Amino acid sequence: MWGGRTRALSRLWGLWPAGVLGRRPLSCNAASLEGSNSAHCWNCGGPGGPLRGDGFFCPQCRALQPPDPTRDHFSLMDCNRSFRVDTVKLQHRYQQLQRLVHPDFFSQRSQTERDFSEKHSTLVNDAYKTLLAPLSRGLYLLKLHGIEIPEGTDYEMDRQFLVEIMDINEKLAEAQSEAAMKEIESIVRAKQKELTDNVSRAFEQDDFEKAKEILTKMKYFSNVEEKIKLKKIPL
Ligand SMILES: [Zn+2]
């Protein structure tokens, strides 16, 4: 019975939302940004490359510079490299950056600047989304510390936890009423809140193994949340 349940559970991993997994490597698309860490402006040759000034525009000719591939999401979004993130500040920074680099503002500029603005804009979106949600933020932070959670690691989970997840999935499969769905949603929300608090504490104590274990649990609950969303979509 347990084996069957665990196997059924393993299949759930395939339903993880795209983006939580399969992120691009942290080194970013360095190859496609060749030469971008040059200290000189690509346009005027002045000492105003991405490592100078605001990192976006040449202080001399104001040409948009390519993204700095060594800059991580926390630095880009002007946040401390920590699990605790001020989401209001994060949103302001996102809006501020999009006002600087959004492709709409470059339609009359050179093809080079249009390409750079696309790249900046994608990076800013990615950084914002990653740091906004606790799960992706935690996974990213772990990755910066050299720890990744490979797919299909459920064999490492304790049986009690796997049974808890299976029970919720069964409840969800059987739920026929709005009230039943609401009840499941509130259980999952409470669990995610508890796990988010725990992972925050683990990061504060630099206990990355603990953080990894908690984030793995959060992935399971995130998968349940996705299934709740799907079930709510009227056929
Ligand atoms: Zn320049």
UniProtKB/TrEMBL annotation:
Which residues belong to any copy of the Co-chaperone HscB C-terminal oligomerisation domain? 157-229
SUPFAM superfamilies referenced in this protein's UniProt entry, alphabetically: Chaperone J-domain, HSC20 (HSCB), C-terminal oligomerisation domain
Which keywords belong to this entry? Chaperone, Cytoplasm, Metal-binding, Mitochondrion, Signal
Q: Name one Pfam family in it.
A: HscB_4_cys
Protein's cellular compartments: Cytoplasm; Mitochondrion
Question: Residue span of the signal peptide, if any?
Answer: 1-22
Per its record, how is this protein called by name? Answer: Iron-sulfur cluster co-chaperone protein HscB
* Source organism per UniProt: Pteropus vampyrus
Q: Tell me the classification of the organism that encodes this protein.
A: Eukaryota, Metazoa, Chordata, Craniata, Vertebrata
